[in-house]
Amino acid sequence: MIQRLFEIDKWKLKSRNVEKDAKRLQESLTSLGNGYMGMRGNFEERYSGDTHQGTYIAGVWYPDKTRVGWWKNGYPDYFGKVINALNFIGIDVEIDGETLDLFQDTVTDFHLELDMETGILRRSFKVTKNEKAFLIEAERFLSIVKQELCLIRYHVTALDADAEVVLTPYIDGNVTNEDANYDEIFWLEVAQKAEENRATIVTKTIENNFDIPRFTIAASMESRVTNLKESSEAVAKKLYVENKYRFKVLKGETAKMEKRVAVVTSRDYEEQELAPKAEQILADLEALSYEILREEHANAWLERWQKADVLISGDDGAQQGIRFNIFQLFATYYGEDARLNIGPKGFTGEKYGGATYWDTEAFALPLYLSLADKKVSRNLLQYRHDQLDGAKINARKIGLKGALYPMVTFTGIECHNEWEITFEEIHRNGAIAHAIYNYTNYTGDSSYLENEGIDVLTEISRFWADRVHMSERLDKYMIHGVTGPNEYDNNVSNNWYTNYIATWTLRYTIESLAKISTTKKEALQITDAEIDFWQDIIDNMYFPYDEKWQIFVQHDTFLDKELRSTDTLTDTDKPINQNWSWDKILRSCFIKQADVLQGIYTFGDEFDFETKQRNFEFYEPLTVHESSLSPAVHTVLAAEIGREDKAVELYNRTARLDLDNYNNDTEDGLHITSMAGSWIAIVQGFAGMRTFNERLSFAPFLPKTWDKYAFKINYRDRLIEIAVDSKTVSIELLEGAPLELDLFGEAVQLVDKLEKHDYHK
User: Fold this and answer.
1) Are 203 and 72 in contact (CB under 8 A)?
2) What range(s) does the Glycoside hydrolase family 65 central catalytic domain occupy (predicted)?
């Protein structure tokens, strides 16, 4: 069921309701971030109703002890948690002695707006206190020019009478996590001080038992107020600092305040340097007005959009969806820091934990390859190489050689606490390997592969070689006890996708080893016997297949289930992950997300049209799409086999998954990594872009409800724009050297601008 809170607008999310019954959903959707930090769309004022106050700093986390009913050998020692940090946006408001509270107070003319084009959140409303009317206006942004900086502008206007207004900007370190096991508070105070117009607080994570460095955060605020101020005071107490300003506001006048906050962490500075550094950041900006800082920030966003925007004409809902997703992805990660990755919730919530999943490599990397400088994607790969030692530890912990990249991590060490994922969802290893191919194939840059990348590939291959076993009955290699991408089927034997990506990884590693230097090969201690064993696995891997349906079987016993399509589910069944027992889900045939189809999508050049069509027509009707990663893959395959209406249906689902709360779970936070799926759906689905075997190609179609769409991609030091309307496919080379590519299967030379008019050919 669709739950839509915001108006359809091409560049903005706009609402005219406080949404007291859906406040958490509203907060998730209006989250802000700048790659360094971010927060949910909480109000600055107090709100006594149901809310999820959340502020998060990139790379700051806590190793909470894994708590399970029955400990199993090999379990991760800790569960890595994204932790709620200092609330530094807060501003208490009193009018004639009464506290402003948007849950209790009746407000009119409410307007909430997230401007995605410039990365600014605005809000205004009218409220009556003591029979006097007031206009409240708030605006904030997290600078993408100076990433440690948050700016807030807050105005209170007396509309029809004089009043005393008190504005109290504060920083509150007394925060908790909603997912804490036993109501833990993760922060201790290190220092705090408050003085006129300024205040600073320093907090540090509590002790842990896992030899994980503790994190320290300093936040310093500066408040600038108008000359209507009558008095001010500064207060510092445990885990809390504030500045309080009293205004005498005459009818028609406005109490104006600007709150500037600088946040720094022990990731970048020694603990004793933090408070001075935060204060210095604010001092360095002393001469720059709010308007100048906002303009710099907005211009930086506009520069990003110049290359990244996808233009859709004829469907404003589709347009809003793709822009919202690109905005939130870039707000989460733009590649400035190779120590960071793309968390599944970004800065919008705490669910899942961890800094990265395999989603990054499988879904987000293709977008960043096309929409950002290649160093951004290179940093994503470097992140995994830097954590190779941790991946080796993961493999040893379960008694295997090589490297097992974690499902959830901050350091490379697995820190997820569900056994069917930690031990069994090992297909993630293949996604790490495929990302190296994807980067090399797309950019033409083999330097990562030949140096860091081959280290990763070799250790992943050693893991696969140790994880398989030989079935004497069939004389085939098999992989038992796994969970494939479909998490509604656990502990299965011979998941087709896992077997396939394991075999592909071995093959790609052998091919890559042939290209590296003898010195590098010797450093890896590769032997001919080892390569021969890998080749034997490649030649003799078992892949479940059904002759009747002529499909790849998801796993050995999948076809023994009661098979029925999703249209037999009732509204009270859906989503099944919220209405059925886990036992019932596991016994059912229903698929959470693409599994077999994930492999056919990933390795699309290795399967013919009929194979894709048969497998899609069998598996898609069984798929409930209750993973945010699901619709994009199905969109691409539906488009490829000519199911254009199905492709558009699934695009709308991936593009507006959070905006329309399709899976009834967005109140916990946005599905950041899957947001790349909406871009994949358009570019690889509707436009048919492929880059297999170092060859760029397109085969576009235009959705029936659209008039036109257009986008740009970076490709091998070129900037290319593709535009599709009802009559024409236009491809223009905006920057870079000439390029030969394929359009509808025909080789064409792209020099400056190419137009193909017989679009339906």
Assistant:
1) no
2) 323-679
Catalytic residues: 487
Cα angle 82-83-87, degrees, rounded to a multiple of 5: 135
Tokens 């799409």 label which residue? 625
Q: Which residue spans of the chain are classified as CATH 1.50.10.10?
A: 416-624
- Output the CA torsion sign for 64, 68, 71, 76: negative
Tell whether 593 is in a known binding site: yes
**How does pLDDT run across 525-544, given as a tens digit for each residue?**
999 999 999 999 999 999 99
CA 370 to chain CA mean position, Å = 17
Q: What is the DSSP string of 722-754?
A: EEEESS-EEEEEEESS-EEEEETTEEEEESSEE
Sheet holding 107-115, edge to edge: 12-15, 107-115, 120-129, 132-142, 149-158, 254-265, 216-225, 198-205, 187-195
**Has residue 456 got a pLDDT over 60?**
yes
User: Which of these CATH numbers, 1.50.10.10, 1.20.950.20, 1.20.1050.10, 1.10.1130.10, describes 416-624?
Assistant: 1.50.10.10
Known binder of ligand: residue 592?
Answer: yes
- Delimiting residues of CATH 2.70.98.40 domain(s) in the chain: 31-68+76-279
Q: Can you tell me the distance from the alpha carbon of 139 to that of 162, in angstroms, rounded to the nearest whole number?
A: 24
Distance, CA of 124 to CA of 248 (rounded, Å): 21
Are the CB atoms for 239 and 187 separated by under 8 Å? Answer: yes
Strand order in the sheet with 163-172: 98-99, 91-95, 163-172, 240-249, 229-237
420-428 mean pLDDT:
89
Question: Which stretches of 250-392 are assigned E, i.e. beta strand?
Answer: 254-265, 310-313
* Domain 31-68+76-279: CATH class, spelled out: mainly beta
Pick from 501, 618, 606, 502: nearest CA to 551: 618
Q: What is the DSSP string of 600-625?
A: HHHTGGGS-HHHHHHHHHHHGGGB--
Give the largest Cα separation in the chain, rounded: 90
Tell me the mean pLDDT in the region 104-122: 97
Average pLDDT of the segment spanning 133-147 = 98
